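Researcher: I need the complex structure. Ligand is ribulose-5-phosphate. Inputs:
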Amino acid sequence: MNADEQKKAAAVRALDFIEPGMKLGLGTGSTAEHFVRALGARVKEGLEIVGVPTSERTGKLAESLGIPLTNLDDTPHLDITVDGADELDIELRLIKGGGGALLREKIVATASDRMIVIADASKLVKTLGAFPLPVEVVPFGAPVTARKIAEVAGALGCTGKMSRRADDYGEPYFTDNGNFIYDCAFGAIPDADALAPALNRIPGVVDNGLFVGIASLAIVGTPSGTDIIEKK
Ligand code: 5RP
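Model: Output:
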C-alpha cells in the first residue's frame, strides 16, 4: 500500500473502536478525513454517534456527510477522539499541527477518554523533530514571543530556523482561533516531555504541537496492513 492507502487502512481500522451512542472527537488532516468519510458511511447505514470537529474544515466535511455534530459547550465529555499526526514515537508522543488545528485538536483530545492516532508508516519516528514543531502564538507582540520560544527551546537543546507560517498567497496564516503559527525546525527534540510545558509557560504562546501523555493507542498503516501501538 502507498502512503494514502496506509492512511485509509488505519482510518478504517479505527472504526472497530467505535460503538453506537459514542461521542467522538473528529480530527483534522488527510488521514482524519479518511476516518470522517468512513464514519459518514457508517452513519448512513444507521450508526448513531455524535461528533465534535477539531476544525472548521472537518466540521464542513462531517456536515456534508450527514454526521450529527455538537460542540464542547453542550457535550464537554467525549468517549474517543480519532486524529492524525505529523509524527509519533513508540511512546505515543506526537507532533501535530501541520494542518494548523493543534489547539482545538488538543482541547478535544483531552476532553476525551481516549485519543486514537491514525497514521501511515512514514509518521512513526525514533525521535520527534524532523517535522518542524508548530507553535500557536497570539499576534500581539509575536516577534517578542518568538524570541522567547527560541530562548526556552535553546535551553532544552532545540535550535533551528523558526518561520511564521504563511498561506498560499504569502500572507500570514491565521488559525481557526485567529492566531499565528511558528513552525520551528529544531531537528531531533531531545526532551519533548520538558519542551512541551516549557513552551506553554511563555506569555503569548497559546499551545504547541507536542502531544505528550494524551494518545493511548495508535493505528499505523504499513505497506501490508496495519499495526497497533498501545501505550505501555
Ligand atoms: C492537523 C494535524 C494533522 O493531524 C497532521 O498534520 C497530519 O496530517 P495528515 O493526516 O494530512 O498527514 O495535526 O493540525
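Model: Summary of the prediction. The mean pLDDT is 98.
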